[in-house]
Amino acid sequence: MKIASAWSGHDCSFCILDGGRPVIHAEYERYIREKEPAGDGVQFMFDEMGDVSDVKHFITNFSFKKLKQHPDSLSKLEGIIADNGGKMHVISHHQAHAANAFYSSNFDKALIFTMDGGGMEDENGSITAFTVWEGEGNKIKPIKVFPISQVNIGGVWTRVTRYVFGMQSGWPTGHQAGTVMAMAAMGDKHKYFFDFYNMLERDSQAASYKPSGQPRGANVGTDPRHPYLGKWTDLANSSEQEKFDLAAGLQAATERYLHSLLSEFVDQHQCDNICFAGGVSLNSVVMGKCLEWFADQSLYVTPTPHDGGLTIGAAQFLWHSILDNPRITWEDNYTPYLGADHKSKILPTIETMKDKIETSQSSVSEVVDLLDDQKIVAVYGGGSESGRRALGNRSILADPRSKKMKDIINEKVKHRQWFRPFAPSILRSEVSKWFEREEDSPYMSFVIKFKEEVRDKVPAVVHFDGSARLQTVTKNDNEWYFDLLTKWHEKSGVPVLLNTSFNDREPICETPEHAISCFLGTEIDYLYFYDLDLLVRRK
């Protein structure tokens, strides 16, 4: 039985389950090359899938109000569902987040936290930004749902990112929170700590109200008239160091506030496993702190905690909780490589661009040689990664031993701020030799500190505070990437590669055309299509 789900609006996406297993998850932004665009999720599904006539059930994680803005695609879908004797379903925003976190984890029982900037829970316009759930077997149930007037961590980050730092990208500033996290490592966390902590604890909703005192509804967290924001904006504009100090204060206050909030429920429920979803879970520094705070528990962060992952959770919720199907034990746990496989398009695309590029057959070992020769290599193959982080199928790779490599890629490839760090991909078997904590982190969910004695061996992937957002790699995670890392380890003596997403300010490359265009528009040295063992260079 096939189930489809779609999300219309920002972070537009769709997902299809077959027999309870995700077979594809596609994010609209990857296809139109614009970060966090609003779109019609149902029409997007028709455009990319073509025939969905075998779908029996459809679920959306919002009210049908949103879908009804697109009557043609919705009417077409309703006809298909009716013909197949199925149903249309609706679940809440945070229910979908919780389902995505739990059902992807392989935990039989877990405490679940969802935390973001707010999502609609019903047709009456109720908005929630922090919830606590319990998952067991094939069911999840709410423990505590906080009104947005009480907890809105994501809203605070949105306001500060947008109005204090002046960073705007997508809807409204989701892709820029990582920049603030990067700045925090270079600031004085004590200087503005209490201001931010008070905002999180007591004043988090002050910016959500009009001067009349009436709530702003769906615009929660976007009013620039909060009394702190003007002062902070002036400070941020005064010097780069003030920006770093403000970012450090926000990060430190968030950590303290969340530690208190989460600990209350962890202590009460005494669960061995904890799952996280929602945009705040993308704060990998906070997630790294959770490893310390909850050292007695096993932690899992879904690779799609943002709103683009809601369609995965919605479909999973329908399959398990509504249709009452037993939990599926997914071999080797959850895979993030749920994007479409565009292998058949590679050669035709190369043919259309043959006046600009040339190709040759190359092996993984030859790619390793190029990396050892200080070349920057973009890699492309298989299904694209769901979520915000490239994990070897749509990645730019480089030698982490070169101190200058960080500056080169920031300036000439990514065209972004000089202080932005890059992630290390590391063989899972080597983690204990390189990091202060030995943890599984296959989706770059956690920031952990390098051991001090090895930091100078891989300076391109060590942040200013000695930390890194690592990706651990096993053969089961990604066989081709594991092979590359293994051969790189044998040649270089280090089990670590610099890994950053294959893009240049736009969303991660989805199709071969995107890949070649990005390659030609940057100073990446080579592009490797690993499905065909094809190495691309400029003419």
Number of helices: 18
CATH architecture of the largest domain: 2-Layer Sandwich
| Strand residue content | 15-25%
Across the major sheet, the strand order is 11-20-19-12-13-18-14-17
Report the CATH C-level class of the largest domain: Alpha Beta
Q: Remind me, CATH topology of the largest domain?
A: Nucleotidyltransferase, domain 5
Shape by Cα distribution: globular
Overall tally of domains: 3
Helix content: 25-40%
**Which structural category fits the helices and strands?**
alpha/beta
Q: CATH superfamily name of the largest domain?
A: ATPase, nucleotide binding domain
Give the rounded overall mean pLDDT: 90
Give short descriptive properties of this protein:
single chain, 539 residues, Nucleotidyltransferase, domain 5, eight-stranded mixed β-sheet, 18 helices, 20 strands
How would you summarize this macromolecular structure in one to three sentences?
The chain is an alpha/beta fold and 539 residues long. Helix content is 35%, strand content 21%.
Describe the 3D structure.
The protein is of the alpha/beta class and about 550 residues long. It has three domains: about 1-90 and about 315-320, Nucleotidyltransferase, domain 5, CATH 3.30.420; about 105-300, 2-Layer Sandwich (Nucleotidyltransferase, domain 5); about 345-539, Carbamoyltransferase, C-terminal domain (DHBP synthase). The chain contains 18 helices and 20 strands. It has helices at about 30, 40-50, 65, 70-85, 95-105, 155-165, 175-185, 195-200, 225-240, 240-270, 285-295, 310-320, 345-350, 365-370, 405-410, 430-435, 480-490, 510-520, and strands spanning about 1-5, 15-20, 20-25, 55-60, 90, 110-120, 125-135, 140-145, 275, 300, 355-360, 375-380, 395-400, 425, 445-450, 465-470, 470-475, 495-500, 525-530, 535-539. Strands 11-20-19-12-13-18-14-17 form an eight-stranded mixed beta sheet, with helices on both faces. A five-stranded mixed beta sheet has the order 3-2-1-4-5, with helices on both faces. The radius of gyration is 23 Å and the shape is globular. The protein starts with a strand and ends with a strand.
